[in-house]
Design a protein that fits this description.
Elements lengths: L2 H8 L1 H8 L2 H8 L4 H28 L3 H29 L3 H5 L5 H16 L2 H19 L10 H8 L4 H20 L2 H24 L3
Helix pairs in contact: 2-11, 4-5, 4-7, 4-8, 5-9, 7-8, 7-11, 8-10, 8-11
Bound molecules: 5-(aminomethyl)-2-methylpyrimidin-4-amine (NSP).
C-alpha cells in the first residue's frame, strides 16, 4: 500500500465523516442556508491566507525544481480564480470588508492556522506536504461525485467545481505521488512526523465542517 493510502486508511473515520458530511450533502443539493455558507466562507478565507504561506514553504523546501513549479502554478490558481470566487461570493452574501479581512476566528480556524505555521516552521518538506495533501485530497474526495448535478447558485456550484475540475484532480494525483515519493525515502522519524501532521489536518477538517453548524 502506498504511503498516502496508508495515511488515509489510518484516518478513515475523520476522512469519511467529511466526505459524507451534512455540508457536502447540502451544498450539492443547493439547500445550504446562506448564513451557514457565509460563516463557512469567512472562516475559510482565513484558512486560505495561511495555506498560501504554507505553499510558499513547500516551494522553498522541495528537493527539486519540478516540484517547485507545481506548487507555484497551484498558488497562482488559488490567488486568482479561487480568490475572485471568494470576493464574488462575499459580495453576493453581503459580507462587509472588515469581516472579509478580520473575522473573529473560530477554534478550528485558529487550529488550522497553528497547524500550518507548525508545518511551515518545521522546514520539513514531508510535513508541509502532508498538510497540503489532506487539504486538497480530502476536498477532491467530497467534491468529485460522478454524475451529480450541480446546484444552480454559483456560490454553491463554483465551490464544488473549484475542487473537482481536471486541473485540480491532476494536482491532487501529483500531490499524492509526491508524498509517496518523499515518504519512500524518508527515515522513520520523517514518516512519523508526516503522519502526525496528516492526522492533525484530518481531525481539523472534520471539526471545521462540524463547527459551522454549531
Ligand atoms: C478547511 C479547508 N480545507 C481544504 C480546503 C481546500 N483548499 C479549504 N478551502 N478549506
Amino acid at each position: 500500500m502506498s504511503f498516502s493510502d496508508e495515511l488515509r486508511r489510518d484516518n478513515a473515520r475523520d476522512w469519511d465523516a467529511c466526505v459524507d458530511h451534512r455540508f457536502v450533502r447540502e451544498i450539492f443539493a443547493g439547500t445550504l442556508p446562506p448564513e451557514v455558507m457565509r460563516r463557512y466562507l469567512t472562516q475559510d478565507y482565513q484558512f486560505i491566507d495561511r495555506f498560501v504561506a504554507l505553499l510558499g514553504m513547500a516551494i522553498a523546501t522541495a528537493d527539486r525544481f519540478e516540484s517547485r513549479i507545481r506548487f507555484a502554478q497551484f498558488a497562482a490558481m488559488i490567488t486568482s480564480d479561487e480568490n475572485t470566487y471568494f470576493q464574488r461570493a462575499f459580495d453576493t452574501l453581503g459580507v462587509p470588508d472588515a469581516e472579509r479581512r478580520h473575522p473573529v476566528l473560530t477554534a478550528p480556524t485558529a487550529g488550522f492556522q497553528t497547524l500550518m505555521k507548525d508545518a511551515a516552521d518545521s522546514r520539513d518538506y514531508g510535513s508541509c506536504l502532508a498538510v497540503l495533501t489532506v487539504a486538497e485530497w480530502l476536498y477532491l474526495s467530497w467534491a468529485d461525485r460522478a454524475g451529480e448535478k450541480l446546484p444552480v447558485d454559483f456560490v454553491h456550484a463554483e465551490w464544488i467545481t473549484l475542487h473537482n475540475n481536471d486541473g485540480f484532480r491532476s494536482f491532487v494525483t501529483w500531490l499524492r505521488s509526491e508524498l509517496d515519493r518523499v515518504g519512500a525515502t524518508a527515515d522513520t522519524a520523517g514518516r512519523t512526523n508526516a503522519a502526525a501532521f496528516f492526522r492533525r489536518a484530518a481531525t481539523l477538517e472534520r471539526s471545521f465542517f462540524d463547527h459551522i453548524y454549531e
